[in-house]
Amino acid sequence: EERRYRSASGAPGALRRRQHSASCRELAVRCPRLQLRSLSAVTSAVWLAAYGLFVLTENSTVLSAAIFITLFGLIIYLHFVKVDQESLLVIGSLGIQVTSSYASGKESTTFIEMGQVKDVVINEAIHMQKVIYYLCILLQDPGDPQGVSEVVPLFQSSKPRLDCLIEVYKSCQEILEQRKTAPQ
């Protein structure tokens, strides 16, 4: 099941929910695709500036450097910055897997054992004179069962709005509740 939503910045996105079993759900937030218009604008601006320098200096290495810098910057952006999808796989008996898929095809995965998870919450923050909401996992402090040792924020690239976060939150809470009520 896929549902459209908007990010905190107003960009379109989608939330895909898949239920593998009663205690296993996958929630994936798709980020807006790379816009060819913005990519073309940045490339044109860099190349026009390089051509202007070439006309002033009559040095052809300026043009070569501009092409190299543009291509190198694009590769870095696609491989390390531009996230296409962020997903959350919640397995009640094992843990939570957080995966970020980059535009280049690279994936970054983190696994958190269910024994470390204290709770999943929606938190709010003030950023640039507006309130933004984000989903995070609270990790239990091993020394203090009532304490929190770490806060792991989720969906940092896609930044979905509150309505999308509430859906993800409810799905996570259903599985966490099943785990709490199940016999050990």
Automatic annotation (TrEMBL):
Keywords: Membrane, Transferase, Transmembrane, Transmembrane helix. Pathway: Glycolipid biosynthesis; glycosylphosphatidylinositol-anchor biosynthesis. GO terms for molecular function: transferase activity. GO terms for biological process: GPI anchor biosynthetic process. The chain crosses the membrane at residues 39-56, 62-81. The keyword Acetylation does not apply. The keyword Nucleotide-binding does not apply. Belongs to the PIGH family. This is PIGH acetylglucosaminyltransferase. It comes from Sagittarius serpentarius (Secretary bird). The gene is Pigh.
